[in-house]
Please model this.
Amino acid sequence: MKILVLNAGSSSQKSCLYEIEGDGFPQNPVETKWKADIDWNVNREYGVLEVKANNTKIEKNLELKDKKQGIASMLNTLVEGETKVVDDLSSIDIVGHRVVHGGSKYSQATLIDSEVKETIEELIPLAPNHNPAHLEGIQAIAEILPEIPQVAVFDTAFHAQMPKSAAVYPIPYEWYEKGIRRYGFHGISHKYCSHRAADILNRSLSELKIITCHLGNGCSLAAVDGGKSIDTTMGFTPLEGLMMGSRSGSIDPAILIYLLQEYELKPNRLYEILNKESGLKGVSGESSDMRVIQKAIEKGNERAQLAFDIYIHRLKAGIASMLASLGGLDVMVFSAGIGENTPAVREKICQAFNFLGLKIDSKKNSSSPMNEDIATPDSQVRVLVLHTEEDWAIAQECWYIKQSL
Ligand code: ADP
Model:
């Protein structure tokens, strides 16, 4: 089965093609046959397309900043030139889109019809940088490949059925009725990591209490009980919760009121500060990148050290909160850029939860072994470093839906 995955961001369009052999559910990730990336931000006049396939890499400028045309040019590289991997675009069986916001309506991946498109459109105010790009991608595919089924895989879906006590904010209830609630994000990654953890440990997901730590530029936790997300740190938007690369995470909401009143900051400016100038970047004054923070700490930079210490403090608090929601813990998963590659973060966190009988093998931890258990044999909690594969998780959802068509 040939599955095309589209992952549209506010300024990029990442895509890949998987070819899945055999009839059984594809549990283990397979290599992509073709990978493409359009960056709409490098230049004011052009988008830049980079394609990797057949051990070749090509790069070209896309003539117009017209995203639909850009997607058409990108798809052409599947059937033409050095990166050709299929004879005809119509041989693609199904297309999956990562959709950042599906609201509370969709709790699983869904075949795209006019109702799904309307919902994605209605949710634009909640995901202004992403949902319009998803719609453009869906429309472009519908025009180029009208017969091919398209699937929306929502980043919110995994959390859509969490208990109301976790989803409803303690503010006037009418606000909840207007859609102001915890939605949670990174759901594709949290779901994938919890399934993969059970698989690697050869345990049934239904009997496990798991905390998945997705620690990339954006950071969030999920409390996964028997395969269901029952709590998560991101909220109405991906700004809530943990300290992140350049996002503040949770702060006292009265700080915003104070800044609005006393410094007359405009809402747009507050948005910029909290999303782009805070977190590791804002505290250290150096960078939002954990690698740069680590290097600065080695050189004795005190603000970088403080940024790291706050990051750990808040991560511990977040994990403690997920732990309380779960009422126990079998598995802790570290994934995404920082979770997969920063031993110092895993070490500090695991030390903090040592009182649970959680112990890691520090030698194993320091080598960041991928998709492995780094807990000691006598640890009461298994600790996994997992490479999160959101595109592959989308392909799995597409495979599943295609079976029912
Ligand atoms: P995104 O959320 O944008 O997908 P990533 O998952 O790539 O981001 O995570 C980015 C973060 O991961 C950065 O803080 C970066 O420093 C860190 N990171 C990525 N790769 C490495 C690495 N090889 N070693 C240490 N940190 C890394």
In short: The two ends are 13 Å apart (CA to CA). The longest helix spans residues 302-326. Residues 69 and 140 are 8 Å apart (CA to CA). The first strand starts at residue 2 and ends at 8.
